[in-house]
């Protein structure tokens, strides 16, 4: 896990994939904590770049291949806790284009779907995703 310690507090680094096609956004309903709907995301491994982690996470979670990725936000969320018990995460959020047929990794994803902006408002979003989607003017 890529992490750093600041003032005796650990923080993790994660990547996020905002995948959009025909005015709809690709979202997953997480199988494990943190529960709720989110964009594909995951921790950056110790020796990975954010771009490498992004490709790996998208492939692992939903079996899609990245064709392009553009960094659109870098944000520290001090209150976000992960399943490793660490509170505080630096998010590298990318706008991503993908190819392939979606297939859920049932160990990580309950369901997936494509949602327009109005439909996104009805989902039980993870708190950090509610924040990030609002920051990006998607919600």
Folded structure, characterized:
- The protein has 139 residues and is α+β, with helices and mostly antiparallel strands.
- It has one domain (3-132): Nucleoside Triphosphate Pyrophosphohydrolase (Alpha-Beta Complex).
- 19% of the residues lie in helices and 48% in strands.
- The chain is built from three helices and eight strands; from the N terminus they run βββββαβββαα.
- Strands 1, 2, 3, 4, 5, 6, 7 and 8 form an eight-stranded mixed β-sheet that branches.
- The mean pLDDT is 92.
Keywords:
139 residues, alpha+beta, Nucleoside Triphosphate Pyrophosphohydrolase, 3 helices, 48% strand, globular
Outline of the structure:
The chain is α+β, with helices and mostly antiparallel strands. 19% of the residues lie in helices and 48% in strands. The protein has helices at residues 50-62, 117-120, 127-135, and strands at residues 3-6, 9-21, 24-30, 37-38, 40-43, 65-81, 87-99, 109-115.
How is the topology of this model organized?
Layout: E1 3-6, E2 9-21, E3 24-30, E4 37-38, E5 40-43, H1 50-62, E6 65-81, E7 87-99, E8 109-115, H2 117-120, H3 127-135
Parallel strand pairs: 2-7
Antiparallel strand pairs: 1-2, 2-3, 2-5, 3-4, 3-8, 6-7
